[in-house]
Amino acid sequence: MPTTLLQANQLSHRFGQFQALEPLDLTLNSGEITILEGHNGSGKSTLLLCLSGLLRPSSGEILIEGKDYFTDEISARRALAIAPDVPRFYIELTAWEHLMFIASAHNALDGFEPRAEKLLRDFGLWEARDLYPHLFSRGMSLKLGLLMALIRPFKVLLLDEPTSALDPASTQLLVERLIHLRQNGASILFTSHDPDLKTNIGDHVFQMNSGKLTKV
C-alpha cells in the first residue's frame, strides 16, 4: 500500500502583489510518478521550488514523511532531491567533483566511483568529467543537474522540465531510470510539456493554470 511521502497543505506563494500560487493541497505517495502540466508562467516552477524548500511559501505547510519541512529541515532535505530546469554549479568544481561533493554531503560515498562513472557514461558526460560546468552546453548542464540528484539517496524526487534539452536517447534513459525508482518506492514529481511522458509513465497528472492546481 502506498505511503504518503510528501504532503502540502494550503501552500501558497506571493511575489509582492502577484499571487504566483493560490492555496493548494498536494499529496505525493511512494511508488508513484506525478506529472505537472501547464504553460510557461503558470506557477509550476514556483510550486517545485516551494516544495523543495528553496523558496519559502507565503502560507501553508510541507510535510516530508510526516515531518514539517521548516521545523525539521535536516531530515526533510535528506529525503528530498530536486533538479531545477536551470541547475546552478560551483565555478571551482569539475563535473566529477560536483557529484562527489553531493554524495559526500548526503553520506553516500560508499561505492561512489562506480556509481558516478556509470551515470556519467550512461548520460554521455564521461569524457567531460574533468571539465568545469561553465563550459557545458545547455543539454550537458541539464544532464549534470540530473546526475547531482540521482547520485544521492532520496525518497522524493522533484524534476523541473527534465527532458527539455535532452536528446532522445538520454530522454529514454531517464524514463527507464524513473520507472526503476518508482518500482523501488520513490515518489517522483516532474513538470513537462511532453504528452508522451504523461501517457507512458504518469500515474497522476495535474494541471497548473494561473497558480491554481487541478487534477486531470
What does this molecule look like?
This protein has 216 residues and is α/β, with parallel strands linked by helices. The chain has a single domain (4-215), classed as P-loop containing nucleotide triphosphate hydrolases (Rossmann fold). The protein contains seven helices and ten strands. It has helices at residues 44-52, 73-79, 95-105, 112-122, 138-150, 168-183, 195-201, and strands at 4-15, 18-29, 32-37, 59-64, 67-68, 80-83, 156-160, 187-191, 204-209, 212-215. The strands form two sheets. The protein has a six-stranded mixed beta sheet, with helices on both faces. A hairpin with a 2-residue loop joins strand 1 and strand 2. Helix 3 (95-105) runs parallel beside helix 5 (138-150). It is globular and about 45 Å long. It starts with a strand and ends with a strand.
Report the biggest beta sheet as strand number plus sense, adding barrel if it closes: 6 strands, mixed
Strand order of the largest sheet: 6-7-8-3-9-10
Distance between the termini: 23 Å
The CATH superfamily turns out to be P-loop containing nucleotide triphosphate hydrolases
Q: What is the highest CATH level, the class?
A: Alpha Beta
What proportion of the residues is helical, as a percent range? 25-40%
- Please state the overall shape, judged from the principal axes of the Cα atoms: globular
Instruction: Tally the structural domains.
Output: 1
